[in-house]
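Chapter summary example.
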Amino acid sequence: MKGVIITVIIVGILLITSVFYITMYNQSSNKISEKEQVTVNQNQQNPSKTTQPSNTQQNPASTSQTARNYNIDIKNFAFSPNTITIKAGDKVTWTNQDSAPHTITSDSNSNSNSGTLNSQTLDASDTYTYTFNDKRIYNYHCSIHSGMKGTIIVE
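The structure predicted for these 155 residues follows.
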């Protein structure tokens, strides 16, 4: 009888712990506050390793404006903010603040060009920078963790 009670208690603890972690993961991956979307950290430089794609040349049509730098944090298995609106010619830098590796990869089934965003695997503290020259919507994800998604809207 004691063995059955101990087994029930252990199973109950495991179920409660599982529900807690699932709830926390869903909240962290789906929750972006208005404040986070409005207060995108701008013009920060990260001294860690940076990888850049080869097509980061400034678009001549956008040289009349001052290009801005935006930062997206990768933390708690989510992009933060997960949606931003920028101007053509602006740069975005993603910084991996998780201990797990991540990527920035264009969605192939979206209205963005397949393969536009294609970072190397980013380990902890690694960064990836991309200059957005074309006005369109860029949908992207982490190819390692498919539930991680983000959007860059270039006006």
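To summarize the output: Helices lie at 2-30, 34-38.
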